[in-house]
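Workshop exercise sheet. Pairs work together: one partner reads the sequence aloud, the other fills in the structure field after running the prediction. Swap roles for the next sheet.
Pair: D.N. / O.F.
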Amino acid sequence: MEKRKTISVISMMFILLMIIRVIEIIFVKTDQTWVGENILHKICCILLVWIALDMLRLHWSDLGFSKKGVFTGLKYGLALGISTFFLSYVAEFIVLFVMGKHPSLRFYITNFSLTQTHTNGASLLAAIVCMIGNIVNVYAEEGLFRGLFCKIGTQCYPQKTANIIQALLFGIWHITNVINPLLDGSMHIAMAVFMGIGYILLSGILAYEWGMCAALSGTLWTGASEHLFNNFISNSLHTVTETGADEWMVLRITLSNMLSLLFVLVISQKNIQNKWRIQKEK
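Structure field:
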């Protein structure tokens, strides 16, 4: 597939799904219902990826959702998620204590947003619905960005370039989170631009890291596992003080993203050094 055609295919798929995503966010607002997640466009995403795979005569396993490496990938993904969020929660608690507040952890389900939240309660049903929604979300986004887009992209570009492209698109994908706050007047344009850039950077960092995990392991399971853990923990485990909840969530999310990327970069560098040493010994 030539470069121009590759970019055209990726762009058309992304724009189509972005339009469906915006329509759901503005008009349907599924995340503000008992579902707690804008899941309709994710289902459309899965269907579109399935159609693309059928046209390319590929399978989901060709994208990285193979049976091989499932447990190893899940293990490393959870290790990344748990370790980075543990450190980021500790940092958040320290900041709050220094500010003279008395933070505690509370478990209850909300949609994920740095600007607006909708609480669905702490029941088992709410947790199950949240988990199912996040599984659909992860399957769609990993299959599209780290899976299909990287698969198509590497046919014409180096893996690193393809990874940068999908990471940039994944970041742009998340600027839609500022649409409703901007429309309802709770956020002015300057703040929306600032938050939009923040979403691009934070989401892009994770997307690039998960692309590196896919390149290192040959599967999507490590990134998918961390993605699922990150989403669920952000939806469910909240820092509460006498003045509110998740007041420093931006710090928590930013720090966990940066630490996660740092850990994978270190692992990647060690992997390169090991390969170089083996080749030198030969």
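Discussion prompt: Residues 249-281 form the longest helix (33 residues). What would you look at next?
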